[in-house]
Amino acid sequence: MTMIKNVSSSPRIVSESRLIAGPESDVKIHLINKRLADLPRFSAERTLVMMHGATFSSASLFDVAVAGASFMDVLAQAGYDVWAVDARGYGGSSRPPDMSRAPEEGAPVVTARTAVQDFAAAVDFICRDREIVSVNVLGMSWGATIAGAFASAASAKIEKLILVTPLWLSKEPLRIDAGGPLGAYRIVSPRAFEAAWRGAAPEHARHDLIPDGWFEIWEKAALATDPDSPHPDTIRAPSGAVQDVRVHWTADNPFYDPGAIACPVLVLAAEWDVDVRFDMAHDLFVRLASAPYKRLVEIGQGTHMVLMERNRQQAFDAVIGFLNERVAPAS
C-alpha cells in the first residue's frame, strides 16, 4: 500500500490518497480520504464510502474544489470520514492490460460485476483500517449500480445507502450508449462532454447551469486522472458500463434486486436529468421494499451532473441531512 498525505487549503481537513490491494494480486485500488484533522473518533455512522459513475473517476466527480470546496470537503467539514473509490480502469487504480492497446483490440472491460468486487475490497480495507464493521455508502449513476448491488448482498456492512442519479431500467435508449460495436474502452473528451452536459438543460438555462470558471476547473481535474491517455485532452473510460446498459438496463434485466436492500435509502434525482430520467429513479425507489425507511428527493434545475452545478448545495444538504438522522422518521 502506498499513501500520500497532505492538509488541504482548509487547515482542519486532512486529505490522503491510498493505493490498496485489490481482489486479485495484479489489481491496485485507489482511494481518496478526507476528514477533519481533529475528528474525535472513527465510527460506522460517520464513515461514508463513495463510488463514481461510468465515465469519470471519483476525483473528478467528488473532489473538485469550486467556490472554495469540493463535495468531499463539505462532507468532511460536516464531520464525516469520507472515502472515494476508483474501480480498476479509472483514475489512480490499475488499468486492465487491454486499456494499453487500441480500443478495438479488446472486449469491454470493467463491468459492474468486476467493479462490485473492487468496491467490496475497498470497504473491507476501510473497515479494517478504522476498526469498524459497517459504513455508509453513496453511488452516483453507474456507481449507484455498484452501491446498490453491494448493499443488496452485504446488508450487514451498510448503515445507510445513497443513490445519486442512479442508473436503472429504461424502455428508451440511454445517451451513454451510442450504438455500434464496443471496444475495450472509450476515448472521452471532457470539452466535448460539456455540450452534452449543458444540453440536458433548457436552452435558456444552459449558460448559468455551471457557474463561470467551474467547468474549466473540472476539466483540468478530469484530465489529470488519466495523464497516460493516448490522445491529447482526453481520458480513457472502460466500456464495461456501456455493456451493462445493453445487458441489463435496456434489456429489462436488473443487475441487482432493490428489494434485498435492508438499510435506509435516499434516492437523489434531478429535474433535467436525461441520462437517468425521473421515471427510472422512481421505479427503483418503489422497488426498495425492504428498506426500513426511504426517501426520494428531486433537485430542481439540475442535470445528471448535479453535484457539480449551481444547485449542488441542495444536493449536499439532502445527503448530509439524511446521513445525520439517527432514527427513522415517525410513522
From TrEMBL:
Gene3D superfamilies named in the record: alpha/beta hydrolase (3.40.50.1820)
Species assigned in the record: Bradyrhizobium ontarionense
Transmembrane segments: none
A Pfam family matched in the record: Hydrolase_4
Keyword Hydrolase: yes
Record-annotated Serine aminopeptidase S33 domain positions: 69-310
Entry keywords, A to Z: Hydrolase
GO molecular function: hydrolase activity
Protein name as annotated: Alpha/beta fold hydrolase
